[in-house]
Design brief:
Elements lengths: L10 H18 L1 E5 H21 L3 E9 L5 E9 L1 H13 L13 H8 L5 H15 L8 E8 L6 E7 L1
Antiparallel strand pairs: 1-5, 2-3, 4-5
Helix pairs in contact: 1-2, 2-3, 2-5
Length: 166
């Protein structure tokens, strides 16, 4: 018995397709695709969301002593990711594609650069800052996605579905 659906593609095409669809699911919250693809995307997306939920609160407070420009000793309180959270973040970044944030209509180039300068991987940041806290409070393990059937696609009669984050 196979462990995943082949989806009629070679391995590299299948991996790229799944990475793209999981990235879009996390970024937009819902995608429309075929039923077989949606079931595979669901498996991967739920694993990534579970990893983000487990490491969401895992931070370390650090006190750092430094000298300011006047030569005075200052103590800074910093909150950093714990090593396990950093590892989880890097694992997720290695799987998801990088999506650039869209420039707003009333925003000039300088404002856009200022807004997006710290956000190198916005999909991962969205996963850790918005999605993980939302599901952290729920009592269930898994079940972060929902599939709605739309009916057959015109042309090849493939069963179309909407896959969305609950």
């Amino acid at each position: 018995m196979a462990h995943q659906r082949k989806l009629g593609r070679t391995a590299d095409q299948r991996k790229a397709l799944l990475r793209n669809q999981v990235t879009n699911l996390i970024w937009y919250g819902r995608i429309e695709t075929t039923e077989a693809k949606a079931k595979e995307v669901r498996r991967v997306a739920e694993r990534l969301i579970t990893l983000a939920i487990k490491e969401y609160d895992n931070t370390v407070s650090v006190q750092k002593e430094t000298h300011n420009d006047k030569g005075q000793l200052m103590t800074l309180d910093l909150v950093n990711d714990a090593p396990s959270k950093l590892h989880a973040r890097r694992q997720i970044m290695s799987y998801l594609y990088d999506i650039k944030e869209v420039k707003k209509a009333d925003e000039n180039k300088a404002e856009y650069k200022e807004r997006t300068k710290d956000n190198r991987h916005p999909v991962v940041e969205k996963l850790f800052r918005e999605i993980a806290p939302k599901y952290k409070t729920s009592k269930t393990n898994g079940g972060y996605t929902r599939i709605y059937k739309l009916g057959p696609r015109r042309g090849d009669a493939a069963e179309m579905v909407v896959l969305e984050l609950v």
